[in-house]
Amino acid sequence: xxxxxxxxxxxxxxxxxxxxxxxxxxxxxxxxxxxxxxxxxxxxxxxxxxxxxxxxxxxxxxxxxxxxxxxxxxxxxxxxxxxxxxxxxxxxxxxxxxxxxxxxxxxxxxxxxxxxxxxxxxxxxxxxxxxxxxxxxxxxxxxxxxxxxxxxxxxxxxxxxxxxxxxxxxxxxxxxxxxxxxxxxxxxxxxxxxxxxxxxxxxxxxxxxxxxxxxxxxxxxxxxxxxxxxxxxxxxxxxxxxxxxxxxxxxxxxxxxxxxxxxxxxxxxxxxxxxxxxxxxxxxxxxxxxxxxxxxxxxxxxxxxxxxxxxxxxxxxxxxxxxxxxxxxxxxxxxxxxxxxxxxxxxxxxxxxxxxxxxxxxxxxxxxxxxxxxxxxxxxxxxxxxxxxxxxxxxxxxxxxxxxxxxxxxxxxxxxxxxxxxxxxxxxxxxxxxxxxxxxxxxxxxxxxxxxxxxxxxxxxxxxxxxxxxxxxxxxxxxxxxxxxxxxxxxxxxxxxxxxxxxx
Length: 504
Ligand code: ADP
Ligand code: MG
Hints:
Layout: E1 5-6, E2 21-32, H1 71-83, E3 91-92, E4 95-98, E5 108-111, E6 121-128, E7 131-144, E8 148-150, E9 159-161, E10 168-174, H2 181-198, E11 210-220, H3 223-230, E12 240-245, H4 248-267, E13 275-280, E14 285-291, E15 301-302, E16 309-310, H5 313-321, H6 327-338, H7 342-349, H8 352-362, H9 367-384, H10 397-408, H11 414-427, H12 431-437, H13 446-459, H14 461-469, H15 474-484, H16 491-503
Parallel strand pairs: 1-7, 12-13
Antiparallel strand pairs: 2-10, 2-11, 3-16, 4-5, 4-15, 6-7, 7-10, 8-9, 11-12, 13-14
Helix pairs in contact: 2-4, 6-7, 7-9, 8-10, 10-11, 13-15, 13-16, 15-16
The chain binds adenosine-5'-diphosphate (ADP) and magnesium ion.
Adenosine-5'-diphosphate binds at residues 24-28, 173-176, 215-217, 233, 236-237, 239, 241.
């Protein structure tokens, strides 16, 4: 099904180092489940609500309150697992991860350490048109988000907003299969795309609905192969975790900085301390936040308030049957059915809405032409128009399809089509009617074009003499004729007639 070349991982080698070092990266992505209610309460998950207005008693950690699992969150986690070709665990369980923080009123986070709901899967990360890298996903577990402490509203006080407390997150953990900054960013891009196609997370990174903890280590050339052969993490270097990254650009800059930092320490004879670090975008550097906790620091234990989560295969099968066509399949189909390049197909499938729009335009028409018009004209125009979303496009697929039909039938030239597109974009209307009413039809009547050519030749004897010596100057006559006919003359006919007349 997939028309892709798999690239052997090319490790990023850091220039300027004494030795050959390779990067090893593993990502833990927190994706907010797009459910209306929280993981264990009926409180709303609406973003931007009045602080502390979406808080049920159980979210506030009130004594005696019991969590009740939200079935929708489980279904969306299963759907995500299926979309990543992962194993679904029919039995999973919730554990308490204990720590104290003012934005965590329970005193623990309910998570899934020992038995996650989703097991190993994989993501095909796009590294260029038609080139993919396979990155394995180790697991996905469901867990609660924490609230938000606000330290910058008052000089003497801190505030806490519990609206986020208890919102369902999927933690999607990759194997350390990622070998460079670009690949790490591409992994997040692809994961986000799949989640958005599935509708299980809106992927809004600005709102923090998707954020990544980026684990980075470096090792000497050859060590990674040993790790691959044996699965023994001992062959890899000590990692540092860059916390809460929510921009593709910063992910790359942070990894690059971190790799150089680690290499400098190691080449100086030092050792890497395993720790959690924060990336400072203003200074483009990472700095230590805290030493890395181990699982035992959190005193994990099975949550006694919740039964193990058991789901049925038939239910999983129903969810599987409801999966939409995913990006890789859609892109392959666009290449196969419409004859698009891998690049154009990638652009059009980046978002499901773009792909749906394109398919309506291309339906029964020239696919490549439809792709060109959607990518170059429509996307370009929407971008200029305050970055409008395709769902708000003033030009409907039927209207754009109409313009393409007028070009295909030679009723209008490509140049006039651009004017027509602008009219439809700003004023609306049926393209065929506009062409008729405003006299935009292409002149294919050779008699009329011939008359215009004759006139211009007669008026410019000097230019004619020059053009007879240098045929390249014929273009000037073509331009004049196009001008004289208001751009409506069929360019092919004009070219032919000009060449013919100049040769006489
Ligand atoms: P923790 O929960 O303590 O952060 P995990 O076992 O969940 O530890 O691993 C977290 C992430 O770190 C995973 O994505 C894993 O692939 C990655 N990772 C583990 N070892 C390394 C390493 N040596 N270099 C880079 N990434 C690593
Ligand atoms: Mg982890």
